[in-house]
Amino acid sequence: MKQYKVLVVGMGKRGMHHATSFNANPKFTVVGICDIDAKRLDDAAAKLGNPEKSSDAAALAKAVKPDVFCFCTLPNLRTPMIQAALDSGAKLIAFEKPVALTSAEVLSIRDLIRKAGAKAVVSHQHRYGKHYQKIKEIVASGALGRVHTVYGTATGWMTHMLSHMIDYSMWYNDYAPGVWAMAQAAGRAKFTDNHPSPDYIAGFVQFANGVRGIYECGAGAPDQPEVAKWWGKNRIGAQGTEGFAEVLTNGGWRAVTKSGGAQSGEGAMNYDADMPPYIQEMADWLDDDQKVHQCNLEHACLGAEVMLALQRSACAGGQIALPLTTGADEQTLLKTKVADKPVLVSCEQNKKEFGLA
C-alpha cells in the first residue's frame, strides 16, 4: 500500500485535528510539523510520534519533501504557505477556509496551483456530518420540487463563517456558478479580529441555473434559539416548489415535503466524526485523479468569488457581476467604506459577542 508523507503547519486546535487524523489513517504518516510557538510544537510532537519539527515551514518542507502540505494558519498567510508547498514538490495542498482575504489573492493562488498541476483542498468539512448529508440527499432526490432558493445564516462573523454558509448552500445547488451579487455591511468592531470582518453582512446572489442565494453573517443575522452553542447557530438549506430542507450546525435537520410531510433528525458538528472522511478523500484523490475531493479548490473558489463579490457590493453599491475578472483588496475597501457606527443586533447574546454588552 502506498503511503503519503504529510507536513502540517500550525499546531493549534485545527492543526492538531488535521495531524491526528492524518496519523490515524494508514495511507498517511506525519513526517514534519511546524509552529512559531516552541512549547506548542514540542507538545504536538510528543503526541504525533516525534516527527521532524521547525519554526520555518518553507525550510522544513524542502527537507522532508511531503506529498501533502497542510497548513492551518490565520487567513493572512495564504500565498507564502502555498508557494512553500509548491516549491517543495507537494502533490496536494490542504488549508483552512476562507481561500483568501481578497479577490486579488484568490485569483493569484488559483493560478499558481493550476499552473503547478497540484491538487488542493479547502477545509469545508462540516459537509461530512450526517445532518448536512441528509439535506443534500433530500434536495438531490427531487422531493423539494424545483429548487428556487438556497440560503445560509450564521451569527458568527464573516471571515469565520460566510465561506461555510456559501459553500454548503452551493453544494445543495450542485455548484452552479454565481452570475451577480449584491449586499450591505455594517459595524467595524471585528475589523481588528484575526479573522477581520464587518460586524454584519447580508446579501443576495443570482446563480446561473436561476436559483437565488440569500446570506447573512454576523451580529444582525437571525438567532437560532433551538441551538445553545453560539458558534453552532448556523442554518443552511434549500426551498423548492414542494417544500424545504435545512440543517442547523449544532441542531440537527428538518424538512417539509409534499410527499413526506414534516421530518427531522439529529446531528451536530463533530470533528472526530467529520475529519476522517475528509482526510480519506485526500488519499483517494492522490491514488486516483478521477476521485476528486468534495472540498476541492475549484469549488471553494466559486464560493470565494461569491463571498468577495458580496463584499465589493457592500462597498461600491449595486450589483457585482460574476465571475470576477480582476482582483481587488476587499479588506481595505470595507475598512474605508463601512460606516463608523455601532451595529444593530438580532439577539441579546450577539451584544456580548460583538462588544456591545
Characterize the structure shown.
- The protein has 357 residues and is an alpha/beta fold.
- The protein folds into two domains: 4-125 and 272-296, NAD(P)-binding Rossmann-like Domain (Rossmann fold, 3-Layer(aba) Sandwich); 127-269 and 304-337, 2-Layer Sandwich (Dihydrodipicolinate Reductase, domain 2), CATH 3.30.360.10.
- Helix content is 37%, strand content 24%.
- It is built from eleven helices and 15 strands.
- It has helices spanning 13-24, 38-47, 57-64, 78-87, 103-116, 130-141, 158-172, 271-287, 297-316, 330-337, 348-353, and strands spanning 4-9, 28-34, 52-54, 68-71, 92-95, 119-122, 147-154, 178-186, 200-207, 212-218, 234-240, 243-248, 252-257, 261-265, 320-321.
- The strands form two sheets. Strands 14-13-12-11-7-10-9-8-15 form a nine-stranded mixed sheet, with helices on one face.
- Helix 3 runs parallel beside helix 4 and helix 9 (297-316) runs parallel beside helix 10 (330-337).
- The longest helix has 20 residues, at 297-316.
- It starts with a strand and ends with a helix.
- The mean pLDDT is 97.
